[in-house]
């Protein structure tokens, strides 16, 4: 196993920078995920770690060794690509054994390595088949097995599940998590799929425009995003954003004016704000509660017009319009909750401790030191008690 250290990593194509001084530490044995939209630089950085792209500036260390100019074959890593890249004329066994045979390993050692990897990936019955006889998920297992037999110190995955259908992606996520637990090898995984990132990564690095916006555990990124980009990128539906203006502040809260004239309380370090500041209120769909219009207005509720309801079996998503707000407000409700009809009005309760506040620069404002376990429980009670006329 090996740690990975990135210090001031820069990538330029001619005079055009695409990676802007990335600093990141990946611990020995960690499962790190790079996530971000297309073109954000995550795959380019992975290829630089692999040695497939030159590093324009900065230092890359793999384990104790500076690896900037080490050839890819000598970096003791294995890479799994989006395309399976299997040899169609070879059997599964031959595909997995190919690199070991090229390295001149004895036949017995090759067979032992291939059979061990096949057992780990549960593809032992497939060893004599050819790629055309396999499903997409089986082919991806073979591609991973080809990497495992080399016993690398570092695994690199470049969107390996994007060619699979939805059910196979779920199955393969489980398999990859199990594989990491069994091997204990350092893994860096690139994806644009936030669900893959949240379910696989022990830590996640969120990329945007060739920079890392934030690094943290899935829980940290979801519940304490550092800015509007991270808050909006992670989560389905994405976090609700409501433009607002600060009316008054206290030590642990602020009163803000929302579009349409509604006033809401938000738990925030009031010392970071001034009256008249332009801010954005952010709140997750599952933290909101819908009620009959006008009900309990004192509970930080705002009036909205229901526009669309999505029934998803285990839950429903209600989209509503707040007067003067540019975006729809999404509320996630349990499936058994009575649903409002499109075109009717409802009250949306905003729990103060569940709301985040972002400044005019898009950065998250600090929250009070003691934040909202009591309010979180209260929010759950509100959601469970939601009623409609």
UniProtKB/TrEMBL annotation:
Residues 4-234 form the ABC transporter domain. SUPFAM superfamilies: MOP-like, P-loop containing nucleoside triphosphate hydrolases. The keyword Transferase does not apply. Keywords: ATP-binding, Cell membrane, Membrane, Nucleotide-binding, Transport. Gene3D superfamilies: 2.40.50.100, Nucleic acid-binding proteins (2.40.50.140), P-loop containing nucleotide triphosphate hydrolases (3.40.50.300). GO terms for cellular component: ATP-binding cassette (ABC) transporter complex, substrate-binding subunit-containing; maltose transport complex. Transmembrane segments: none annotated. CDD domains: ABC_MalK_N. InterPro entries: AAA+_ATPase, ABC_transporter-like_ATP-bd, ABC_transporter-like_CS, ABC_transpr_MalK-like, ABC_transpr_MalK/UgpC-like, Mo/tungstate-bd_C_term_dom, NA-bd_OB-fold, P-loop_NTPase. PANTHER family: MALTODEXTRIN IMPORT ATP-BINDING PROTEIN MSMX, MALTOSE_MALTODEXTRIN IMPORT ATP-BINDING PROTEIN MALK. This is sn-glycerol-3-phosphate ABC transporter ATP-binding protein UgpC.
């Amino acid at each position: 196993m090996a740690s990975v250290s990135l210090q001031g990593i820069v990538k330029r194509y001619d005079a055009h920078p695409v990676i802007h001084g990335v600093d990141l530490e990946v611990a020995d044995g960690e499962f790190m995920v790079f996530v971000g939209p297309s073109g954000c630089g995550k795959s380019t950085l992975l290829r630089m770690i692999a040695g497939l792209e030159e590093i324009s500036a900065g230092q890359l260390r793999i384990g104790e060794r500076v690896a900037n100019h080490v050839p890819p074959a000598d970096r003791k890593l294995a890479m799994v690509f989006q395309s399976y890249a299997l040899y169609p004329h070879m059997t599964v066994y031959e595909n997995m054994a190919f690199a070991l045979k090229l390295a001149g390993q004895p036949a017995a050692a090759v067979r032992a390595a291939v059979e061990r990897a096949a057992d780990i990936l549960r593809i032992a019955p497939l060893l004599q088949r050819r790629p055309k006889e396999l499903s997409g998920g089986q082919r991806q297992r073979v591609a991973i097995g080809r990497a495992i037999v080399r016993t690398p110190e570092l695994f690199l995955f470049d969107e390996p599940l994007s060619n699979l259908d939805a059910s196979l992606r779920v199955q393969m996520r489980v398999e990859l998590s199990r594989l990491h637990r069994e091997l204990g090898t350092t893994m860096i995984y690139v994806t644009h799929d936030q669900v893959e990132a949240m379910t696989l990564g022990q830590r996640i690095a969120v990329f945007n425009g060739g920079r890392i916006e934030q690094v943290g555990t899935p829980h940290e990124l979801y519940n304490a995003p550092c800015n509007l980009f991270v808050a909006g990128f992670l989560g389905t539906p994405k976090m609700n954003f409501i433009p607002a203006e600060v009316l008054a502040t206290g030590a642990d809260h602020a009163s803000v004016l929302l579009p349409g004239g509604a006033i809401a309380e938000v738990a925030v370090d009031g010392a970071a704000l001034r009256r008249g500041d332009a801010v954005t209120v952010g709140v997750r769909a599952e933290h909101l509660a819908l009620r009959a219009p006008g009900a309990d207005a004192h509970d930080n509720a705002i009036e909205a017009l229901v526009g669309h309801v999505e029934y998803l079996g285990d839950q429903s998503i209600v989209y509503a319009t707040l007067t003067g707000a540019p975006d729809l407000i999404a509320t996630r409700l349990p499936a058994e909750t009575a649903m409002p009809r499109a075109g009717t009005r409802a009250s949306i309760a905003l729990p103060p401790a569940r709301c985040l506040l972002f400044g005019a620069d898009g950065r998250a404002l600090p929250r009070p030191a003691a934040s909202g376990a009591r309010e979180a429980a209260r929010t759950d009670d509100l959601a469970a008690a939601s009623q409609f006329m």
